[in-house]
Amino acid sequence: MKHGQPRISKKLPAEPYTQWEVGVESPSSACGPATMAALAEYWNTHLGADFIRGKGHFPSKAAHINYIYSHHGGRSWGMSVRRFTKGLKNYIHSVILPKDQQKLLITTFNDFEVYKTEIDAGRPVAVKFDKWFRLRWRGEFTYDYHWVLGIGYEGFEDGERATLIVHDNGVRYKDGRVTLGKERRIPYFANKDIITMVGLDIADASR
User: Fold this and answer.
1) Which Pfam families does the protein's record reference (predicted)?
2) 3-state percent breakdown (helix, strand, coil) of the chain, nearest 5
3) What gap in Å lies between CA 99 and CA 186, rounded to an integer?
């Protein structure tokens, strides 16, 4: 890092979801559906896409998560990136009629600069950590296998100390205690080898 290099940061006002919320039917494998629900809620609330069903369409956040789990890709072993992108597309298209009037763009990538561009544009990013299918079994990472919602970043303009600000979807401890979803800061380059990012953009949604 060069002397005097300015810090950069941005954070979006996304609402956290918790996969361990009371009422979630399959909490241990609900991080993908919880992330998808939080992403949908942000587009509904902050990006003018009120045609996307957010939490107001459901009795509770738990019901929102359960619906996505049951209908859009949830599995007991977790949600793959392919199932996440397919489920997200189907979830949005299920309430857009006709489909061809909305230009839906879902992209997958693993690049901090692209991630930063999405956040700067006001769009949260789904982030998956997966050391098992990336064959990094012995690596030490923030998560072994988990989905979170990327809501911001920190670092320096030269790229050093690139940090993801995410909502972690909550934590359950061995003693049974649960903490609700909260912000967490995660070093990007220490986890880069097992990360996949999913970006969402919808043309013509008022912002």
Assistant:
1) Peptidase_C39_2
2) 30, 25, 45
3) 37
Neighbour count for residue 132 (Cβ, 10 Å): 11
Q: What's phi and psi for 16, nearest 5 deg?
A: -70, 145
Say which residue, 67 or 101, is predicted with more confidence. 67
pTM over 0.90: yes
Torsions phi, psi for 194 (to 5 deg)? -120, 10
Q: Is beta strand 178-179 parallel, antiparallel or unpaired with respect to 171-172?
A: antiparallel
Model confidence pLDDT, tens digit, residues 2-49: 556 778 899 999 999 999 999 999 999 999 999 999 999 999 999 989
Looking at the domain 10-203, which fold is it?
Cathepsin B; Chain A (3.90.70)
Query: CA neighbours within 13 Å on the CB side: how many for 128?
Result: 24
Mean pLDDT (whole number) for 60-79? 95
